[in-house]
Amino acid sequence: xxxVAKTKTPRRVxxxxxxxxxxxxxxxxxxxxxxxxxxxIQSFQEYGRAQVFGAPAPFIGLGNYVEVLxxxxxxxxxxxxxxxxxxxxxxxxxxxxxxxxxxxxxxKFFRTLVSIGLLLAWAMPPLSATFVWGWVFDTQxxxxxxxxxxxxxxxxxxxxxxxxxLGFFFVAGIVVVWGAVPFVAFTVYAGLxxxxxxxxxxxxxxxxxxxxxxxxxxxxxxxxxFLVLIVLSVIWDLRVFAxxxxxxxxxxxxxxxxxxxxxxxxxxxxxxxxGTGGAIAVILVLILMAVSFVYIRQSLKEDEA
Amino acid sequence: xxxxxxxxxxxDSASPSAPKSAPPSGRATTAAxxxxxxxxxxxxxxxxxxxxxxxxxxxxxxxxxWMVNSSFLPNxxxxxxxxxxxxxxxxxxxxxxxxxxxxxxxxxxxxxNSIGTTVITVGVALVFAFLAALAVTRFRFRGRRSFVIAxxxxxxxxxxAMIISTYRLLEGWNLLNSIIGLSLVYVATxxxxxxxxxxxxxxxxxxxxxxxAMIDGCSRTGAFWRITFPLLAPGLIATGVxxxxxxxxxxxxxxxxxSDDSAHTLPVWLRTFVQxxxxxxxxxxxxxxxxxxxxxxxxxxxxQGRMTSGLVSGAVKG
Lengths: 305, 318
Prior knowledge:
heterodimer, A: mainly alpha, MetI-like fold, B: mainly alpha, 2 domains, 0% strand, globular, disordered C terminus
């Protein structure tokens, strides 16, 4: 193995780096690259159940895309996904930042306490978390209905949360936000420790209040952290699948509560419309790639450093 | 130095080592005259903050606690009109039911499938990613930057979009309902992040260290194994645990690719189990959820700090 990293001249590199890259590249090419090409091709084909059983798949140009984009159901699903994603991202970022600011002001004992709580929430597998929250919001025996009834006096016993789309997404939002706040809180907290004390103190001497200090000093320091956090959250929440699918197992109508990931699954596997499902999948990939651009550019900065 | 190994942004949350920034509100205990007055003013608000901290803690922990609590209670109590906040009638029956009870949705085969898939995924991904990380850190070659960009792009391709074409790929190779097939998919899923993170760790070990060992008489391979590799151990553990958690939790592909009852992994098993019990036995569902969660929680706590810094290291530096 030749070690030429720190010397600038790329001398005698030979085949070594390429040989090292072969296994990883091969796996990615076969398991990601090839299916991606297949997906693209399939999205331009008439591909239904007949084709699965060997009938030829004729090319129909943009037929699938036209069908998807003129289908009101698709726009409902997309709008629902985007709205759900945006609400979750905003709530997650705001709550996460508040928790981070809180942690900064706590003494060691309470900060450790909060950290332990956040870590446990963060570590819960999404599927387990979804079923626990589903149980908390259970119609008959859920603790949520019990506590609401006890505290507010309004009778919530027997209230079904999952039956209406709004209630369903309320619970789904809690599952997603509860699982996502810790990552945001820890990251923002880490960023806060990097804001120099001198600057904060100087601002304090100049009479800046807490809000002004946060807005004028902390926020600019954390700008790129927030940027990446928001982009990652948007991507994760737009792709949300396991939580929605799992909640649908407990209750809720699939037609009214599917997000785009689940919709692709339903269209392709449940209805056997693989061509249409492919077109939706390509559209999802394009949307996510556009959103990811910011993240990728930011990550590359680090690679150059 | 790398942003991953020793970045000050690593949230040392389990043991907060007194971050250098004293809170701006100045709770500092320096008895300098000017501060004392402010300190007295801050007292009531610090009580409020502690109270808020307790609320945050309770909200974070409650679902986890509720899951464990319900799993240790008899089902008829769980379905009582008044909730039991403590497992006062402690029982292990729910766990017995999950582990050995219902023959239609057996837990143990799913556990074995999950373990098999996870072990293969972590092992293969670590080796492949390590080689690739060496290539992009220790060498400057044509196409290096393109490879790094490709890794980042691939990481962002949503698996949900690829389920059908992946299904057909594995079908063509007779790898449906097979641990090998699923592991292959998982390796590809975790590889980009693993390469990216390991790259940071390898960068953190200066090549000069190896060169110094070689001057002292080590062979090139010897220098690598004795000097560099031990220094990379924390990185390999962190990324390995990341792969473990991903493979253990993954749901979309497992649902589609492992559709046979005997091929279920734990997340798919859990969903089937819930479908079979949702109206009748929440206590057992909570026991199942707990069993699925335990390994992840344990491993997660081992490496929590490093996962954050890997994902946002670019942002912190930028």
